[in-house]
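Today's session is about reading a structure prediction critically. Students often jump straight to the picture, but the first step is always the sequence itself: look for stretches that repeat, for charged clusters, for runs of hydrophobic residues. Only then move on to the predicted structure, which in these notes is written as discrete structure tokens rather than atom positions. Here is the chain we will use throughout the hour.
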Amino acid sequence: MANIREIRTSAQANQEDVFFGQTVIVWARWSVIVAGIVLVLWTSTTISHLTQTVPFFLALMAMNFFLHGRYVMGSPLNRTVVTIASVVDLVLITAIVVLWPGSHGIHNQFFVLYFPVVFAFALVFTRRIEALYTVAAMGAYAGACILTGTVALDLGHDDKVLVMRLIVIAAMGFLGNYYFRIQRERLARASGGGGAASTDLARATVQAALQGTGLKAT
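Below is the predicted structure for this chain, in token form.
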């Protein structure tokens, strides 16, 4: 047992988490796109309203087609590009909250789109990066509400609603990353304490999964 060791280094573990976790972010983004388009079609009463709102989700769809295609072809993007794409998600959702016709800021119900993207991001990245992303999402939403003048910062009802929504966004990030860390610790224990046969099997499984990505199990 003394010769058994973790088959992944810390750096490699981070790379593999991004590789395998990209599918979570991709499908979270598809859920946002589908939900948004359904809501647009449901609430639109004029062609003008439809043409003003659909482009937000078309932009998300175009980006996700690219990311999903790269993943399916076995050449997913690296951590930096995935992070940038996730930041673009926040920008587009915040733009929806600010610019949505007839419903701005705290009164815009599309704030719920922050939840799946923050949760999916937290399932893939380490605590430090996840915390920065979650804080960015909270800041973006709070800024959107203040910018549109729908929150007056006078301790009124709308302020309390904003605080509750920000708490939920923070909870999405915390719970997602908490599950991420539990799974990583379980993998570390399984790969480091299951005997030579299980170590060889784990090594072969990782090598097969990473084939074509440029990563190698050590």
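Discussion point for the tutorial: Confidence is low (pLDDT under 50) at residues 1-6, 193-202.
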